[in-house]
Specification:
The chain has 473 residues and is of the alpha/beta class. The protein is built from 12 helices and 19 strands. The strands form 3 sheets. Strands 1, 2, 3, 4, 5, 16, 17, 18 and 19 form a 9-stranded mixed beta sheet that branches. The chain starts with a strand and ends in a 13-residue tail after the last strand. It binds N-(aminocarbonyl)-beta-alanine and zinc ion (2 copies). One zinc ion binds next to loops.
């Protein structure tokens, strides 16, 4: 199969040119002016951008968490990713403390193998560290092509690790030359504050943010930075939500700590008022760290524009509103009265499964609220949504750039498209959209995965099971 894309306005992280792109099999083989080649399919990209396939470096698909399981499978999530322009995702493999890392890695891999329509890789979660786990982690890095770990400083009693385990994980990562991605919130501060709020009857979803204020996240970041400084390990802070957290990381970088900052799309386009919505609707917006006030999202946009923040991921973590989010209030699932606001007996925000579905919407929201709104330029958009993740996680230059020799992962993007996001039309499995009614300006009109057309005019037309597990370097 060969593909010729003519009149492509090619936008990479660092350059822009108009040219034709020729793809043979799975690879971009030639880029140049008016290519004289014969192709199985010719596409005229006049008036559209051609971007490298987008990469989402922080995704949860199979996720046993807070007494339930995330809603999507690779069947739904990979199709949703592709329709939204994401051709590669990196999933967090999150074993329980009781599971052996190798066994967990195989389990997570089996959920994707032969199912995923897009390419994928894994960050290996370290939720316990002892002699047996150390050996297995080494094997996962050396034999399975995994080049990143994931640790949680939050979620005490579940995924969270203690300081000895954190130290040993970072020391091993340094030895193996892998990067450690980290959820940075101080678990003890959360436990204490949650306990106090719940005891005082402050139990609705609007209390989730005050239970883990910015100081809790900044402390988590400071903690990780100190450990990174002492061990020399490279770290990547996932889902950074606020100014104090960014400032702590920037200060550590000045001391020589190698730290990359990720933010996620909900923090950029939503704010803390969403979790205050009545009738328990606020539960739809409960994620951790919490969505902050506008002042913080404005700051995140600034830091994205100046390159301090490298990547915009999703932290896609889908839970149904009716059947899962209401675990934080058993009565809420039955509510029919629009004024029903369950802050009384039975409600408990600390039991609401944390997470927001967004894998389908990240690119369009970033384009609309970033590029169209004038907050970031096209190159920053490509860097943050594709190239920087490819570079940070060992996928570049195979992924993350429209260049000869790279995988033919292309997004032909139509900036004239106008649409509205809704749970009614999304491919994600959840019964709600956190961005219901949001207008988007632009969408992928055609998406290829290694030369195979996976999306045409917003419709998935790809091949389930064609996605490859990417060995990283
Ligand atoms: O609220 C979130 N972020 N849920 C997913 C798990 C995690 O912490 O990344
Ligand atoms: Zn997290
Ligand atoms: Zn996450």
């Amino acid at each position: 199969m060969s593909l010729l894309i003519q009149n492509a306005d090619i936008v990479n992280a660092d350059a822009r040119r108009t040219a034709d792109i020729f793809c043979q099999g799975e690879t971009i083989t030639k880029i140049g002016a008016r290519l004289d080649v014969v192709a199985d399919e010719v596409i005229d990209a006049t008036g559209k951008y051609v971007f490298p396939g987008f990469i989402d470096p922080h995704v949860h698909i199979y996720l046993p968490f807070m007494g339930t399981f995330a809603k999507d499978t690779y069947n739904s999530a990979s199709r949703a990713a592709l329709v939204g322009g994401t051709t590669t995702l990196i999933e967090m493999c999150c074993p329980s403390r009781e599971e052996e890392p190798l066994e967990a890695f195989r389990l997570w891999k089996a959920k994707a193998d032969g199912v995923s329509a897009c390419d994928y890789a894994f960050h290996m979660g370290v939720t316990r560290f002892d002699e047996t786990t150390g050996k297995q982690l080494r094997q996962i890095v050396e034999k399975e092509g995994v080049t990143s770990f994931k640790v949680f400083l939050a979620y005490k009693g579940a995924f969270g690790i203690d300081d000895e385990e954190l130290y040993r994980t970072l020391a091993l990562a340094k030895k193996l030359g892998v990067v450690v991605t980290a959820h940075c919130e101080n678990a003890e501060l959360i436990a204490q504050t949650q306990g106090k709020l719940v005891a005082a009857g402050k139990v609705g979803p609007e209390w989730h943010e005050p239970s883990r204020p910015v100081a809790v996240e900044a402390e988590g970041c400071h903690h990780l930075m100190s450990f990174a400084e002492m061990t020399g390990a490279e770290v990547y802070v996932v889902h950074t939500s606020c100014r104090p957290a960014v400032e702590v990381i920037v200060a550590a970088r000045k001391r020589g700590v190698r730290a990359t900052i990720e933010t996620v799309i909900p923090y950029l386009v939503l704010d803390s008022s969403y979790a205050e919505r009545p009738s328990f609707e606020g539960a739809k917006y409960v994620m951790s760290p919490p969505i902050r006030s506008r002042e913080h999202s404005d700051y995140l946009w600034e830091k994205l524009a100046d390159g301090t923040i490298s990547t915009v991921a999703t932290d896609h973590a889908p839970f149904d509103f009716a059947t899962q989010k209401h675990m934080g209030h058993p009565e809420a699932g039955k509510a029919v009265d629009a004024n029903f606001h369950p802050t009384g007996e039975g409600a408990d925000f600390s039991r609401i499964p944390n997470g927001i579905p967004s894998i389908e919407d990240r690119v369009n929201l970033l384009f609309t609220h970033g590029v169209v709104a004038g907050r970031i330029d096209l190159h920053t958009f490509v860097a943050a949504a594709s190239t920087n993740a490819a570079k940070r996680f060992g996928l570049y230059p195979r992924k993350g750039e429209v260049t000869e020799g790279a995988d033919a992962d292309l997004v032909i993007y139509d900036p004239s498209h106008r649409g509205t996001l809704s749970a009614k039309t999304q491919l994600m499995e959840t019964d709600y959209s956190a961005f219901e009614g949001f207008e988007i300006q632009g969408r992928p009109s055609l998406v290829t995965v290694r030369g195979d057309v996976a999306v045409r005019e917003g419709k998935f037309v790809g091949t389930m099971g064609r996605g490859q597990l990417l060995r990283r370097s």
